[in-house]
Amino acid sequence: MDDAALAEHAARIERDGFTVLPDVIEPDLLEGLAADLERLERELGTRPSRNDFEGTRTVRIYNLLRHGPGFERIPVHPEVLPLVERVLDPGCLVSSLSSIAIEPGETPQPIHADDQVIPLAKPHAAVVCNTMWALTDFTEANGATRVVPGSHRADHSPDYGRPYESVPAEMPRGSVLVWHGSLWHGGGANRSRGRRVGIAMNYCAGFIRQQENQQLGLSPERVRGFPPRLQELVGYGVYRHLIGHVEKRSPASLLGVEGDQRMVWDR
């Protein structure tokens, strides 16, 4: 996207709390991700959970960055990451990367905000920015993510389990939904005969603890093979030359990466 398109999408997120990037996922990446998820589901024997948040007819696979190079293309995607950096800033981190496959017959997920557990008074500047990658069409019938437009500006989070008026964020396969972490939303009910498959690529500000512990969930040997920007996004960097250092050095030095190691007080 050029600067004008980025500004337009950022303005929609500021106004409505969300925006859709249509048809931004390359066909080869779409096919590869779908095949990888089918393989992982077989190999891991993944089954639905038993709670209403994760869903009793929804298959989720967590910590996808440890499962193959295809997933490494997601956090740094050039059509998505620049918008996330506008919502947060370039010091943002990968918070979690997981798949969500909603089976026919699934009930609606309770409306919630992704920053609901963070103890900050609302409304506040975004500290979480999340994205949903559509590997199938997202329709109202098959459980497209439901959103409450403008709710990111509310002075409170939704009451968990209470019904709220919402609209489906419908989008064609290959599109990406991007939203402010305070937006009220939830997965929809799947009343169709097919699966609704998406990948939740979630980011947080560099000063917020990540939802999935990337440093323990990914071996240093695997991270050494990541491109430099992805190494930073999973936590091998220092936010604003202070937060996350190891004895006044960037964690990237533990991977053998050299660079400017000066902390904020030396700069």
Instruction: Look at the structure and name the CATH superfamily.
Output: q2cbj1_9rhob like domain
Task: Please work out how many helical segments DSSP would assign.
Answer: 7
Beta strand %: 15-25%
Overall geometry comes to globular
Name given to the CATH architecture:
Sandwich
CATH fold-level name = Jelly Rolls
Q: What class do helices, strands and sheet pairing give?
A: alpha+beta
Report the count of strand segments: 9
Question: What characterizes the major β-sheet?
Answer: 6 strands, antiparallel
Distance between the termini: 34 Å
What's the CATH C level? Mainly Beta
- Spatially, the strands of the biggest sheet line up as 1-7-4-9-3-2
Helix content: 10-25%
Total separate domains: 1
Overall mean pLDDT stands at 96
Structure description:
This protein is α+β, with helices and mostly antiparallel strands and 267 residues long. The protein has one domain (3-213): Jelly Rolls (Sandwich). 22% of the residues lie in helices and 17% in strands. It is built from seven helices and nine strands; from the N terminus they run αβαβααβββββββααα. The protein has helices spanning 3-16, 27-44, 69-72, 81-87, 214-217, 220-224, 228-233; strands at 18-21, 58-61, 93-102, 128-134, 146-147, 167-168, 176-180, 185-186, 196-204. It has a six-stranded antiparallel β-sheet. Strands 6-5-8 form a three-stranded antiparallel β-sheet, with no helix packed on it. α1 packs across α4. The longest helix is centred in the first third of the chain and has 18 residues, at 27-44. It is globular. The model has no long low-confidence stretch (mean pLDDT 96).
